[in-house]
Structure formats: C-alpha cells, structure tokens
Amino acid sequence: MQIAVFITLGFGYNQVYAQDIPEPTEPSEMIEDQLENITSANEDEVTEDDSFAKEMVHFLKEPINLNDADAGILEQLHLLSPIQINNLISYRKLLGNFINIYEIQAIPGWDLDLIRRIRPYIIVSQKTKVFQSFNKRIKNGQNTLLIRGTQILEKSKGYLLNSSEVKNFYPGSPQKILVRYKYRFGNLFQYGFTAEKDAGEQFFKGAQKNGFDFYSAHLFTRNLGIIKSLAIGDFSVSLGQGLTQWQSLAFNKGADIINVKRQAEVLRPYNSAGEIAFNRGVGITLQKKYWETNAFFSYRKIDAGFNVDTLNNDDPVSSLRISGYHRTANEIVGKNAQGQLSFGGNISYTTEKIHFGVNAVHYNFEHNIKKEDYLYNKYALSGNRAGNYSIDYSYTYKNIHFFGEAAIDEDIDKAFINGLLINTDSRIALSFLYRNISRGYQSLYSNAFTENTYPTNESGLYSGITITPTDFLG
C-alpha cells in the first residue's frame, strides 16, 4: 500500500492573448490515459521523468496557437506524425491563417479521433509577437510550487536498523520527498529548482548533511533573435534518432505507431527528479533561416562502482550506476565518485520536406572505466573517454515520410536506424522501422527505438498499422 500527499501552489499573473476554450472536466485523467496509451508496451519500465505530464498540463492552461506554432512545438504534444505536422504547415501556408478551430477538419490526414485527442491543447487566434521583452518575461509569468511526499506503509527489511538479518540497512526515513519550484512565461522563459530525497536516504544528517540527496536548477529562454534557445544549469540534449544521445521522453512499441520516430527539440530545460539523464552546464541553439546549430558543454559528478574497497585516484571504475539511490553504505560510497565532462552538438539544415544533420558528443572521465573480465563485458565501455558521431536525415513526399540515422562510436562500431511512415488516408497509417546495431556499439544516455534497453547488438524490422474504420467516437 502506498500513500501520497500533494501540495501545489500557483500564484502570479498570466497575460492572455487568445480566446478561452473549455478544458476537460478531468484533465489529469486524460493525460494519464494518453501516457498509458503511448507507453502500453513499456509497463515494466519505471521513470522519474515526469516532463511529459508537466508539458501537457501546461498546454491545457496555455494552448498552442495553430497560427503561431512551428514543427518544434507541435512535436512536443507527441500526438502528431511528421506527415500531419507537415500537412498543417502546408495548409496554413497555402490558405493563410486559420479563422476558426473547426477549420482543422480540412487538414489532410487529420481525422476526428486525432482532433478529439488534440483539441484541448490547441486554439486558433491572431498571431502573437514571437519576441517578448525581457521585462515582460520576468514579470508576467506564472509561479508554481509543488511539495510531494510518499511512503510505503509496509516496512522492508532495509529499515530494520542494526538488525543482524540485514547487512545493508537503510539509515534514512521511509518517506520520499520532492520539492519543485518553477517560474514560466509561456514557452519563452522559465527557471526553477528541484530537490528530492528517495525513501531510505538520510535527511539533514549522516551522509546527507545538506538536506536533500539531489538538487537541480535551470534557467531556459527561447527566441532571442538569432538565439533560438539558451540553457544554463541543468538541461537535456536529444540528437538524431537516439543513437547518439537522447535525454527527452521517448517511447517504444505501443498503440501510437508514430512514435517509432524520435521527435524533440535538441535543447530542453530539465527539472525532473531523475538523477541520471541530463547535462549540467551551458547549451545554446542558433538559427538562421533553414540552418540551425546546437552546442553544449557540461561537467557533473555521476555515481560509479569501483573494483576495490578503498577509493583512491588510481582505482578503475567497474560500472556507472544509474539507479540514483544513496541508501546503503555501498551506494553512498559510489555517489558522485566519477567526474564526467561532456560536450558536443550538431548542425542541421531543415526545410518543409528535407532535414539533414550532423551530430557529435564526446565524453571524458576522471577515472578509467575497466569492467571485470567476463565474456559479457567484452564489448563494454572502457577507458577514460568515449564518443558518438552520426548523421540524421528525413524526407517527406506527399503522404510518405522517410527518416533515419547512421552512427559510429569512438571505436568505429556502427549503428543504423531507418524508418518509413505512410498515411494512405486519414483512416489508415503504416510504419516500418529497420535497425542494425553492431555488437560493439556503445553509447551513453541514448534511447533509440530498440527491443533492448540500450542500442547495442541488435537488428530487426518493426512494422505497424493503425486502422480507424469509422469516425464514430461513441
């Protein structure tokens, strides 16, 4: 049994530029149903990344104006295929701005079921100014504060302190606590911080004298002239189709077959409770017409396991830990034990029909990585440096969208992903994806469309079809 307490405070001033639209009576249930639908094949995966739910709640409060929206912001909904996004932009370019929300029924490839699902997150209004003064950005936004506490009522053996039955007991309290503050002005400016403590971790004592086990802070702004995005603090980087680096939300097999393609902005602000998949430093996106350049620099301490019991500068790292837990003595010793410097970015050319990009990420580690000499570690990451480099591409022709990525790692091991999305009409959609990833290919913080958790040692063909035989919605 699990109990939870939620406290959410909202205060501030919102400037409204568009008409009001009715919100669903239970928006939280709608978002949960949507998230369950697109992740139905991944029920066993557990994540602390709640960015999707936060974004959808934001779009309920401040819907996307279809007369302003570009492909990047429409991709954030995870509801539209590249073909449907292209059809919307082509329709708007050909016939001008939308006059009424019901006009979206005329967009090719948009059926009534899609319109029903996307309707709460969109509006039609006059165009708003893309650039808002810095003074407006820092004064006219919305502040939110979330305080959340959860606890499992049944005590596990880990809380039997000093018990002879338990070697690695948990010295901390059984509560899991999250505090998150965020200021946000539309999609243009935001900053905030997150503090989190997992169950079993100490709080203002012992190994956690600074209070929470995990702290995160970010400042993020968009659309400052040629600067499309600027990130300071914690942020995520997503490149290509997930073979190089992908730190945004991504889905594998599910009911929505459009999710075979990875779609997200390269730079995004990070304020989730997950302690692994993010960068800490500075990132910037520059855009001029069809050209876009992204660059980032990050340094952070990450968790690691060592081959010996006593730590010193010469000890090789045996593993990079991704649980984020710091409860037992062994987990506490490994906290922030490895220094990780990473930098990289991409340059891309994108039009309505064509996209081509070149991506690169490089890592340097404070301690050498050397895994134990077992056969299953033959191709594992080793040494004090790593890197991934790729090209990604896409092409849209009428109702067909082709996309892919070709990547190599530091040792020239190869990985390929190629996919095809086809909308025969508004009622039938097909998807095909082929991947061929060599057994030696290694990457950090990647999340491609694969059967395995990490993209390595895998080849296969996936196909899916969605058929909507009637527009009757019940």
In short:
This protein has 474 residues and is mainly β. The protein is built from seven helices and 21 strands.
Give the class from helix and strand content and strand pairing.
mainly beta
Number of strands: 21
What is the share of helical residues?
Answer: 10-25%
Query: Helical element count?
Result: 7
| Topology pattern, helix = H, strand = E | EHHEHHHEHEEEEEEEEEEEHEEEEEEE
Give a description of the structure:
There is one protein chain. The chain is mainly β and 474 residues long. The protein is 13% helix and 40% strand. It contains seven helices and 21 strands. β7 (214-224) and β8 (227-239) form a beta hairpin. α1 (27-38) packs across α2 (51-61). The chain is globular.
Keywords:
disordered N terminus; 474 residues; 40% strand; globular; mainly beta; 13% helix; 7 helices
